[in-house]
Automatic annotation (TrEMBL):
<dbReference type="GO" id="GO:0016491">
    <property type="term" value="F:oxidoreductase activity"/>
</dbReference>
<dbReference type="InterPro" id="IPR050627">
    <property type="entry name" value="Nitroreductase/BluB"/>
</dbReference>
<protein>
    <submittedName>
        <fullName>NAD(P)H nitroreductase</fullName>
    </submittedName>
</protein>
<dbReference type="InterPro" id="IPR000415">
    <property type="entry name" value="Nitroreductase-like"/>
</dbReference>
Length: 334
């Protein structure tokens, strides 16, 4: 059936709104959700919401851009699952640093079962801070995730046992540096404590009830939650690094898209994921990660992959801001 231009524009805007609603489930540092969308009849614009930035923890805005990139990819997934082929123009306005991307519909695409499963994975995806059990991640699973990251233009490297030892040192240094930075401590206490803004932050049920006994230490939020850690020690976990040749805003945004793509695929594979962004937030440990990669690229994020303990309940989902707090609808077409 042929539609009029007005009807087509209306249906595109509705698809944009549905995609933005789905993108609210995207991961973000400290669950700050630092993005804002503007929905137009013919395009979808993504902006950074710097009111939810973390200047003490993330002074260069790397993780803010990674978080927004993850939301961007979530929206892309939702649009494709609705039958829309899209084009993304990153950083479209040099005069507006907060304008991160413009998304337009460029045609129709078949709705596949894989696309629908990815949308379902968006609802299931969560951060799992519990130690993993002694079930190894297979080489085939890592290869699949490497392919997924590569499709977005980001490399994925599996750390060797010696490199995991180096990661242990880097994480320890990053935690010490953060503990000595009052602004970073204050941000951790705000977003993981009882006073975090409604619809954001980390509730007790996603934070371990005790410090997990693992070789690679997790981020210390300075609070104890109610998440049962179980008895695992991460001995079978796999650690991977998302990295690339560039270290700029476009690269960080792209890294967020890769993070979303890898995480959704890992979710469909039944793998638990835990990001380690602290080694990227600190200048010294970021340099350590570059050396770990033999200067072949810049590290964007470290991910722990593993199998969650089936004997314990999964962590709850973190809260989300309402649609109205993350999106503005412009019906004028400007």
């Amino acid at each position: 059936m042929t539609t009029t231009t007005g009807e087509h524009r209306q249906s595109t805007a509705a698809a944009f709104a549905q995609a933005v609603d789905a993108a609210r489930r995207a991961p973000s540092i400290h669950n700050t959700q630092p993005w804002h969308w503007r929905i137009h009849p013919d395009r979808l614009d993504l902006y950074a919401d710097t009111s939810r930035a973390l200047p003490g923890t993330d002074p260069d805005g790397r993780m803010l851009l990674v978080s927004c990139g993850a939301a961007l990819h979530h929206a892309q997934v939702a649009l494709r699952a609705a039958g829309h082929e899209v084009a993304v123009r990153p950083l479209p306005d040099p005069a507006d640093a907060d304008h991160l991307a413009t998304v337009t519909v460029v045609g129709d695409t078949p709705v596949t079962a894989g696309a629908v499963r990815l949308v379902q994975a968006m609802q299931l995806r969560h951060t799992d801070r519990r130690p993993t059990v002694d079930v190894p991640v297979t080489a085939e699973q890592v290869d699949e995730l490497r392919r997924i990251a590569g499709a977005v233009g980001v490399h994925l490297h599996k750390l060797t046992p010696d490199q995991v030892t180096d990661l242990v040192v880097a994480v320890s240094h990053a935690e010490d540096a953060a503990a000595a930075e009052p602004a970073a401590l204050a941000e951790s206490h705000l977003w993981a404590g009882p006073g975090h803004p409604a619809g954001t932050g980390l509730p007790p049920e996603v934070i371990p009830d005790r410090r997990p006994e693992t070789d690679v230490g997790e981020r210390d939020f300075g609070v104890r939650g109610t998440l049962m850690t179980g008895g695992g020690h991460d001995k079978a976990s796999t650690y991977v690094v998302l990295f690339g040749a560039d270290d700029d805003r476009a690269a960080w945004l792209r890294a967020g898209q890769a993070l979303s793509a890898v995480w959704l695929d890992a979710t469909m594979q039944g793998l638990a994921v835990l990001p380690f962004s602290q080694v990227i937030e600190i200048d010294g440990t970021r340099a350590m990660m570059r050396r770990l990669l033999s200067h072949l690229g810049y590290a964007y994020l470290v991910l722990r992959l593993g199998v969650a303990d089936p004997e314990h309940a999964l962590p709850g989902h973190t809260p989300r801001l309402p649609f109205e707090a993350t999106a503005t609808i412009d019906e004028t077409g400007r």
